[in-house]
Amino acid sequence: MFICASRKLLLVLLCALGGWAGGAAAAGAIGVSTPYGVVSLPFELHKIPDVPVYYVVGLSGVPGADNEGHTSNAGFVVTDEGVVVFDALGTPALGYRLLQRIREVTDKPIERIVVSHYHADHVYGLQAFKDYAGNPPVWAQRLAAGYAGGSRATQGEDAERRLQQRREALFPWVDEKTRIVAPDETFDEQASFTVGGVGFELKHLGPAHAPGDSIMLVKNYGVLFSGDVIYKGRVPFLDSPETDVGRWLQGLDYLLRLAPQPDYIIPGHGSASRDMSKAIAFTHGYLEFVRAAMRTAVQSFVPFDEAYASTDWSAYRQLPAFEASNRGNAYRIYLEMEAESF
Ligand SMILES: [Zn+2]
Question: What is the CA(146)–ligand 1 centre distance, in A?
Answer without folding.
Answer: 18
